[in-house]
């Protein structure tokens, strides 16, 4: 079936009043001002913003003693869970690394070209900790950098006022392989990693999730430093058919709406009864959450959530691809059909037996994923994001012959005489007794 020719007949049973771009201009201005100040005034400005936004004026670069003291505060059961999750993420990342191979190929006789994957030297990992303590983000970012082979890994995470960095985040960062751990958050953290401030080396790539300020700081520094992707406020979409369990669907939607007031969740279904059931169940599930989570989820549900009724599964899939969600869940028959059909998502959760929370915390796939429709052009964090795929070539004199002639003529046709002469001199040196027509119209 031609996917593009179908007209959409979907109905919005609930429509969002806000979207990810709603407060973008204001955020952009704030971030640009902070970055400029830190770029000009270095450490002093970074510390000033840490005091202002993190409300923290304690030690920023943790000492080994501080890291050990933090680890001592983490209960053994939680340490075991962190190690379990870290091991799953590490083993999955190792499998992914095996998909990047060095290649060597003889393109024309005597000219061999190759591809090599070189890990980025220094990576800066942002671990969010504003509303929640994102312990799992430390595991996701640092473990993957380590498996990729980065020489140096810095972690930045916002401290709690008067307390410093969360102990379990420091522990997770350390066991995952961090070299330096910094108690700093927000734009000032991203800037410090990009500019090499406060005692850390300059990062070549900055990775990790964060709120809209963190995501915008990474976006605007891109070019000066590498980034993994735009991984801002979480968004999630559930595709469910008539056989889905409305209670599970509603619980899964609420589970991701708790991230923040600006975390969209979308239900796309072809079953009106299921949609009505979910709409009925969600408010009570939100109401039953602890206060902070309730506040976040209630605002996200009110302003950003959508419930969309489609005519059939093809329209559901097309709608999902258009939204390009960070997390995509399918609770519908024929999972293979969906797996084959869907094309835009950060991570896909097939069937009721798994859920986004598994991937968020412990199952091994990475939870740092593209948001705000970035899944239309990229996947999530993986070893590949830390690896530069570079090419090389070498040639024999005989191998140089055909390439040099084509190079000289193409260069002349382009008007690039200097390029042409780099080929001319080789032909003249290696084949002094031969005549070549190297003119543009040769
Ligand atoms: N896309 C992904 O893969 C993931 C995304 N996330 C997202 O990460 C985010 C975490 O956000 P937060 O809890 O806020 O933690 P955060 O660590 O990202 O942000 C906290 C920092 O924001 C800065 N900040 C707060 N208000 C500010 C203002 N008005 N101006 C300038 N700076 C300000 C402060 O420096 C503070 O330290 C959530 O939106 C969540 O959905 C979390 C995990 C994964
Ligand atoms: O935004 C995300 O990807 C998350 O849902 C990950 S976590 O829930 O913060 O661990
Ligand atoms: Zn989550």
TrEMBL record:
Binding site for NAD(+): 126, 188, 211
Highest taxon above the source species: Bacteria
Assigned keywords, A-Z: Metal-binding, NAD, Oxidoreductase, Zinc
GO cellular component: cytosol
Organism: Shimia abyssi
Protein name listed in UniProt: Sulfopropanediol 3-dehydrogenase
NCBIfam families assigned to the protein according to its UniProt record, in alphabetical order: hisD (TIGR00069)
GO BP of this protein: L-histidine biosynthetic process
Family stated for the protein in its record: Belongs to the histidinol dehydrogenase family. HpsN subfamily.
